[in-house]
């Protein structure tokens, strides 16, 4: 059972899966969190799996809508080959044991050429040996399955999960066998008008099991959630929630050896404990320039959970963003979850993530990354902690959402909760974003208002934002732009995507004349700005759209504009790397890629890369020491 804390009021609210919010509705949360799951005793189930395509979803339903016929149930433990040998009239139309083999995690787009644009159901099977010890509990934990996962273990349905980017776990203690076990997962990439995101986006779907799968062992009573952070009052705060029959009244402790600090106490009857202590004077604060991380050990009885945690504060004050009490400018870039290479498959290994983040940190002189448009892997946010990059973390409430549908709202809230609970210990994450480019309207305002309430209920150690639309007016040749969105009153940072000179607005030579009005006393950032360019197409003479020279001119003009906006406190231009998008089909310049990257899909830097890199370098030099 998951416990979620109301840190805003300082009162711990435990309610299994729900937290009452300001709107009076219940915030759904994950049943099992398994904080830092990779650190637990586990069997790694990544590696070789077999797969079988099922475009008509025969494995879930027969053609008359009943349960699937015997010969179609790919999740059964039946050894099809030996059964059909013994009974030659038996008819099976699948045999997972003899299917094609692939290495997971990774999207199916690269399993076979015909799967490049497949967005349906795929079955994956994996056999493995286990030897559980008595008294241990076992959980199947998935880093992400895009989009819907139907999980069968040793022939039984153990659960379903919707949402392609957040972790989920099912307990399988009673089904786990000493010896051979069979895990079968049906992953369906289809999205509908009711899902989050909806079917139309500007990125590749990347269906499949895209993140690690693990069989995790825990003691009978274990630490399910654990968190430590620097409170606004300068205290080190900590929370632990236990799961299991002996969760209540249990001694727990948090130790940070490097600070000579131990906090201890006893869980309440619900298995929850919260404590705090003044931060020691020698605490090194986490910042991009000095990403200090501490080894933190959470203990409850025979269960110890290690974490690496940085301590910092983040606030918005007037139009400033304050990191550890000092004003900071977010020198950022956006990125999709797609590795470098001509044929990405969302295979985000540590070297793949490091390669991208290093381009931001060292290549662009950045200190900030917008992880667009959905939660990226846990490894990415952990590496951001380690490498010193501030992070904007986002859920895919994107463009056209079914705003008045309660199921869609429930899905968005669950996704938000899963994302937040997974990453509560990441100092790098300073912003939780609840939406991207969503038109103002009553249903939308209510929907997003609920998500904002959920964020605030769970976490007061970070800021809330959303990428908003702007309103513009041109009079006497001068364009004025402002934010006219009731949501702005409820956000800490106002973020806008701006494409003047690319999608509309004045010609490039007029871009820096645009007047950005500040109608709220809040910091604003450009969550996007950008123009497309095919790497290698310089076009120095004509400088047309899709040339490197146009893109570089666009950056020069937009950066000049940005310098005239006093309340602009950062930016995450669109985007680090060219990324796959089925919407982008110009036969010469795009060929299925959104070309707004500052580097090509294979890592070739475009001219605009250097424009932004110089801009950030100058800003860095202009920043007085200690301001970051
Ligand atoms: C946007 C979207 C982003 C697109 C980008 C573009 O405003 O937020 O997802 O990829 O524009 O390239 O048009």
TrEMBL record:
For the Glycosyl hydrolases family 2 sugar binding domain, which residue ranges apply? 111-219
Q: Which InterPro entries match?
A: Beta-gal/glucu_dom_sf (IPR036156), Galactose-bd-like_sf (IPR008979), GH (IPR017853), GH2_Domain-Containing (IPR051913), Glyco_hydro_2 (IPR006101), Glyco_hydro_2_cat (IPR006103), Glyco_hydro_2_N (IPR006104), Ig-like_fold (IPR013783)
The Glycoside hydrolase family 2 immunoglobulin-like beta-sandwich domain extends over: 243-312
GO terms classed as biological process:
carbohydrate metabolic process
Give the keywords, sorted: Glycosidase, Hydrolase
The residue ranges of the Glycoside hydrolase family 2 catalytic domain are 318-556
- What protein name is recorded for this chain? Beta-glucuronidase
Q: Which organism is it from?
A: Aquisalinus luteolus
